[in-house]
Write a structure and sequence with these properties.
Largest interface: A-B, 44 and 46 residues
Order of helices and strands of chain A: HHHHHEEHHHHHHHH
Strand order of the largest sheet of chain B: 1-2
Oligomer: heterodimer
Number of strands of chain A: 2
Number of domains of chain B: 1
CATH topology of chain B: ABC transporter involved in vitamin B12 uptake, BtuC
Shape of chain B: globular
Largest sheet of chain A: 2 strands, antiparallel
Strand order of the largest sheet of chain A: 1-2
Structural class of chain B: mainly alpha
Distance between the termini of chain A: 23 Å
Radius of gyration of chain B: 19 Å
Chain lengths: 325, 289
């Protein structure tokens, strides 16, 4: 039974093959828009959205292609942020090293958490990742180096590779854009490789994939670690952009937000997480002064998406044009 | 280390355990039949406390009335939720149920926070239960003793009804194979609805019990529910007795951790969860699926 032969009821992307020209075009448009964007929109807002877009793409790697809903992805974003901020501020790491260090810490955390969580599926997996993330949250709340409620403030941005001064907002923007595009392309490559096909096979029928000789556990763990690593890359970059690492980024509300971004944009679509992240970050910007209404609106989007809009923005667009985006 | 401190923390642990048990019991009952993790559970616990507060403020009805009315009122809102939205998702991946109930939790908590702020509203304990007993080795407040005894009674009654009565046997049968039970002429959709209402009612009951101890606060259930999720994973999803035993047990463990190693008191339950997952992935009382 193929995915197209029946109404697809799962959470991820249908199994597709072939070279999608539409995706190349969409990528070109996205890159072009992002290159000119800082001359028309507030760059700090754009950088925030880019970090979250990368975070959502990392999350989507797991939900969209392995069918695992992690409800604790904030732990990778937040931990990497702390590691990058601490190494840059206290140890005096250069920005590229701080980002790499933060990403590596998230990867290691991903191995530990993944080894624990990957044996479960579905709701159990969501539950377990959420609980483990809460454990990480309490650790960050109490550990000395995180600064508790204050977080790590005024992290130096420094000079990238010794010649790019990141204190200049526009320079910083293009560095963040480069990080985002690199992450995006690497994730795209992972999904569209034989490795990605095996992941989709595991999602569709794990027992059959194992019987074909694939060690499903290892593939799932590797996907989990990849997802954690890119979430960490987003978190480390974000810490340098805002010169701040705080508890907000490890809290479960952040884990919920990345689910929201991906769901709204389209689970298992290539561009959905990016679109979703920009919409959610923009919404938060406009609603920030309304306090509790941010939460209410986010909740309402969840409800509407789940009940009537399960393909998300990009998923619906793709269906409209008959293309896989 | 004084024995007084030890028993004091044991008491607090039992109180927390009572809430863990009531909440994880509700989650387990709902999960058993609906196959969803009810993320709204924490918000519904909070609603129980607020209904008690409203009853007192608007109708002059005190604690004992609240204990009866709040679970029914909140249970009915749960039934409406299930009938109008949740039931549309039963054909889909169960994760959508999780996402939907998460959305409702955000909406409900946001609305209450918008209206009542983040600081707590006081709710006084009933006059009959003020004061306490001096047991010689510790002082036992009457209200806390009541919470432990009453929630234990509710938990055990629920266990008895599900495991030992005809109604419970329908419920267990429907958990195993809903289609077959429906073929025997039992109205399974209605049973699902009532089960959800009952589980939500249990959460609200816990909320009323909590109101005099903790303040009535829009976010009182937000973090609690994540601990309860870990409790449910440790006990084994869907296991009734497992929820009760692990609920109380983990409350006590947490209490003792506060005495001997306070830094870990917030994380101890999650650490236990990680260990249990390594040793028994299905949970202490769960059956491997």
């Amino acid at each position: 039974m193929t995915a197209t032969a029946r109404e697809y009821v799962g959470l991820g992307a249908p199994v597709t093959t072939g070279v999608p020209l539409a995706q190349v075009a969409a990528f070109a448009v996205m890159t072009a828009v992002l290159v000119v964007a800082p001359f028309f929109a507030y760059p700090v807002f754009l950088m925030k959205a880019l970090c979250f877009a990368l975070f959502a793409c990392a999350f989507n790697l797991l939900i969209g292609y392995v069918g695992l809903l992690s409800f604790g992805h904030a732990m990778f974003l937040g931990t990497a942020g702390y590691a990058a901020a601490h190494s840059a501020k206290v140890w005096g790491f250069r920005p590229e090293l701080a980002i790499l260090f933060g990403t590596a810490v998230a990867a290691v955390l991903g191995i530990v958490i993944g080894a624990l969580a990957i044996r479960s599926k579905g709701i159990y997996f969501a539950n377990i990742t959420l609980a483990l993330a809460q454990m990480v949250y309490f650790f960050c709340l109490q550990a000395a180096f995180t600064g508790g409620e204050d977080g790590i403030q005024s992290v130096p941005r420094g000079t990238l590779l010794g010649f790019l001064d990141l204190r200049d907002t526009l320079t910083l923007y293009f560095v963040v854009l480069a990080v985002f595009l690199a992450g995006f392309l690497l994730i795209y490559r992972a999904i569209h490789s034989p490795f990605g096909q095996v992941l989709k096979a595991i999602r569709e029928n794990e027992a059959r994939t194992i019987s074909l000789g694939y060690r499903a556990e290892r593939y799932k763990l590797l996907a989990f670690v990849l997802s954690a690593t890119f979430a960490g890359l987003a978190g480390a970059t974000k810490a340098l952009v805002f010169q701040l690492a705080s508890l907000t980024d490890v809290h479960w509300t952040m884990s919920g937000e990345v689910v929201l971004m991906t769901l709204l944009g389209g689970l298992g679509t290539v561009f959905g997480p990016v679109v979703g992240a920009f919409i959610v970050v923009a919404l938060e910007n406009y609603l920030a002064h309304l306090g509790a209404w941010v939460t209410i609106v986010q909740g309402a989007i969840f409800v509407v998406c789940v009940l009537t809009f399960r393909r998300g923005v990009v998923g619906e667009l793709g269906k409209l044009f008959g293309k896989s985006l | 280390m004084t024995t007084q401190a030890l028993f004091g923390q044991l008491l607090i642990g039992l109180i927390n355990g009572a809430f863990y048990a009531l909440l994880s019991l509700g989650l387990s009952v709902i999960f058993g039949l609906l196959n969803i993790i009810n993320f709204t559970h924490g918000a519904q616990y909070m609603m129980g406390a607020f209904v008690a507060y409203f009853l007192l403020q608007w109708a002059g009805l005190g604690y004992w009335w609240a204990l009866l009315i709040a679970p029914i009122v909140v249970g009915i809102t749960g039934i409406v939720l299930e009938r109008t939205t949740l039931k549309r998702l039963y054909q889909l991946d169960h994760l959508y149920g999780l996402l939907l109930t998460f959305g409702f939790a955000l909406i409900i908590q946001g609305l209450f926070r918008h209206q009542y702020g983040s600081s707590g509203l006081p709710y006084s304990m009933p006059g009959q239960l003020t004061g306490g007993q001096n047991l010689g080795f510790m002082f036992l407040p009457n209200y806390r003793a009541w919470v432990i005894v009453f929630s234990l009674a509710v938990c055990l009654t629920t266990w008895y009804v599900i495991e030992r009565t005809r109604l419970g046997s329908y419920l267990r049968a429907a958990t195993e194979n809903p289609a077959l039970v429906q073929a025997f002429g039992i109205n399974v959709p209605r049973m699902i609805t009532l089960t959800y209402g009952f589980g939500v009612g249990l959460a609200a009951l816990a909320g009323v019990l909590a109101a005099p101890i903790y303040q009535v606060n829009p976010l009182m259930g937000a973090d609690l529910i994540i601990v309860v999720f870990a409790v449910v994973v440790i006990g084994g999803l869907g296991s009734i007795m497992g929820s009760i035993v692990t609920g109380f047990g983990l409350g006590v463990v947490e209490g003792f951790t506060k005495v001997f190693y306070p830094e870990a008191s917030n994380t101890v339950i999650f650490v236990i969860m990680a260990v249990v997952l390594l040793v028994r992935p299905a949970g202490l009382f769960g059956r491997a699926s």
